[in-house]
Amino acid sequence: MPAPIEDYALLSDCRTAALVSKDGSVDWLCLPRFDSASVFGALLGEPTHGCWSLRPSAGEARVTRRYLPDTFILVSRWETPDGVAEVHEFLSIDEEQTHLVRRVVGVSGAVDMDTELRLHFDYARALPWVRQIGTETEPALWATAGPDAVVVRGARFQASDHAHVGAFTIAQGEIRDLVLSWFPSSEPVPEPLDVERAIAGTRSWWQGWASGIRHEGEHRDAVTRSLLALRALTHRDTGGIVAAATTSLPEDFGGSRNWDYRYVWLRDAALTLEVLITHGFLLEAEHWRRWLLRAVAGEPQEVQIMYGIAGERDLPERELASFPGYGGAAPVRIGNGAVSQYQADVIGEVLVALEAARLAGLEETEFSWPLQRALIERVIAGAGQPDNGIWEIRGVPRWFTHSRAMMWAALDRGVRAVREHGLAGDADRWADMRDGLRAEIEERGVHPDGYFVQHYDTDEVDASLLVLPQVGFCAADDERMLRTVARMEQTLLRDGLLLRYRASTGVDGLPGDEHPFLACGFWLVEQYAASGRAADAEALMDRLCALASDVGLLSEEFDVDAHRQAGNTPQALSHLALVRAADALAGHPGRAADRH
Q: Cα(first)–Cα(last) distance of the chain, in Å?
């Protein structure tokens, strides 16, 4: 059984990510990109599916972990009866190639360390050829399968079945560097990494980025770590922002609600962009806008809701028989079938984010505004269709109130761009369409009891309705919103945490159940703060922040019965919603929520 999800710490070089357990095992690493095939995949099975453990030999060793301030350099401090050692590990961020560095530092006494390397390429479907290529004083292990190759330096490994094992003793004041370097198998083995330079460069890069964070108010540590997590999920070459670093971590333990989140959802990326802009990162906004221009090139009707990291369109969903799944939760999927869905809210999120960039001072280019006009036309063309909604239901498409409100927001931002910023466009036609959508929502999306409904054919509510005041469709203290929140509190709270919707209604077309959705909880904090329920907002915020891991990371959901994180991790939507909630508590909402 893999470690609990909250026991995994993230390492990132903003091209890919590794997950390291408290036990010192790298159980997830895809090379060279977030969405590449795994080299270490024990997260979705067993050690035989690929992992690299490094820990003291003593079974009674005690570990505590932390990141070096404002970085993703993980420090695991191991205390044993014979001494203390630390493992400093990171993905080097200033190199062209990918290097996973695991530096062992002797703090006191002498600590015996064991390491076991199990390489299993291509989602555990290819055992590599392995051979020793180093010397007695500078050991190196080379492995290759298909297009990929790695070299591991710093420890002498001996073959043991399909694993390679090593042992050494680290004394006070000593340092030993273990480094795994990835390279294309058709190219020569790279030169050894200058680890001192890599540590200094990686630390400087992360801390330099974090020094630009602007935040006033409480929860600064959580906000900083969340913004760093969002940067860690942003590809530094393409600008694509992945939704999470993993695939198929279950929303329902032992069930089939397992999805691949290693791609760029326009919605999640746009929401991430908004919080980055709010906290001073306009350069990232410009980088992502360039990615968007490349990704959605073509006819407006061909716009997808998600793309690959470099803008790839072909993301077919497949099931992998090579993995049994996290804790037996099968199937394990790569790709995502939602790529072909119609989700009517997505363009609204994009246009809201691009308006935020415009208001922050990012100038329109000869291509950026024509792109937005084309997206508005796509909204108009799809206005007569039900959709799959923000939660990507696999049941019957519906007239989701949140989706219709986000279409309203898309048109509203287009009208404002013309009338307030002097850009060219048919504002009158867009305004007529916008006002018609508002009238429709107010007629069909409001229950006779005065609350907004999930979709036009139900009396259920949905946590996505909390977004309506965020985008200015109505005020947070609008009587309809207050009644909607009251209805959520009656039907969607599980031990005080908010579900997305009631899965028992069958609206999503999937078997099984799910757990409270962390981003929705933070949306509720924002709603409480904006509607005068400050004490409730603070109490819920404190509880949600306490659900983060020991290194400050959040997954998608939280199992209140087993008290454990659930779903893919770290989840961009959870972290960006945390930042927005903290801003709301500080009196600085990130969206134009006062325009309604």
A: 50
Q: Across 367-526, where does the E strand assignment appear?
A: 493-494, 497-498
pLDDT reported for residue 596 = 44
Q: Rounded distance, CA 13 to CA 10, Å?
A: 10
Task: Please name which of 454, 458, 478 lies closest in space to residue 390, comparing C-alpha atoms.
Answer: 454
Q: Report d(CA 34, CA 16) in Å as an integer.
A: 4
HEC-encoded secondary structure of 130-167: EEECCCCCCCEEEEEECCEEEEEECCCCEEECCEEEEE
pTM assigned to the model: 0.96
pLDDT, tens only, 330-357? 999 999 999 999 999 999 999 999 999 9
| Encoded tokens for 320 | 């992998």
β strands within 71-123, DSSP E: 74-80, 83-91, 99-118
d(CA 399, CA 445): 9
Q: Which residue has the tokens 């691949």?
A: 260
Coil vs helix vs strand at 373:
helix
pLDDT band at 297 (very low <50, low <70, confident <90, very high): confident
| Cα dihedral sign, 326-332-334-339 | negative
Does 131 score more than 50 pLDDT? yes
Collapsing DSSP to helix, strand or coil, 496 comes out as: coil
Contact 176, 43 (CB under 8 A): no
C-alpha to C-alpha distances, 75 to 87, 90, 111, 139, nearest whole angstrom:
6, 9, 16, 25
